[in-house]
UniProtKB/TrEMBL annotation:
Pfam families assigned to the protein according to its UniProt record, in alphabetical order: DUF4442 (PF14539)
Superkingdom of origin: Bacteria
Descriptive protein name: YiiD C-terminal domain-containing protein
InterPro entries: DUF4442, HotDog_dom_sf
Length: 150
């Protein structure tokens, strides 16, 4: 971003220890899409030498957090984003580098309008986890809320 304003990736890397632990790479972060990559690291492999399910979950959840911060960063002075619930499905065996791509499932303006009206909006983020060959190895749906500050 700029010398005075850290990027979303820099902010998450600095504030979320698991992002640093797993060495997650921020490929793209915008209000439309967030793309994060998990390098192939034997320390985080499972019993079949692919990324552990917990590492895949963290990758997907982190991608969802990146898009939430990108989309609603201008609301942080009045509300805090919190994950409410998540569901993940593991579709195909993952090996090597994996990538998570997150997209909002509700228009930003609708979420902000609900917050403006005094509500505590909830919205879903859909995340697709892919292998290097493009095959979908997992999918996550995570519901977030913007909790108004007291």
């Amino acid at each position: 971003m700029s010398e005075t304003m850290p990027s979303i990736g820099e902010m998450l890397t600095a504030s979320v220890p698991m992002v640093r632990t797993l060495n997650l790479e921020f490929v793209e972060t915008s209000a439309e899409r967030a793309v994060l990559r998990l390098p192939d690291q034997p320390d985080y492999h499972n019993h079949i030498q692919g990324p552990h399910a917990g590492a895949m979950f963290t990758l997907a959840e982190s991608a969802s957090g990146a898009i939430v911060l990108s989309a609603f960063g201008d609301q942080l002075s009045r509300a805090v984003p919190l994950a409410v619930r998540a569901e993940i499905g593991y579709r195909k065996v993952a090996k090597g580098v994996i990538t998570a791509t997150a997209e909002l499932e509700r228009p930003i303006a609708d979420v902000v309008a609900e917050l403006d009206a005094g509500g505590r909006p909830e919205f879903s983020v859909r995340v697709e986890i892919t292998r290097e060959d493009g095959a979908v190895s997992g999918e996550m749906s995570i519901t977030w809320t913007l909790r108004p500050n007291a």
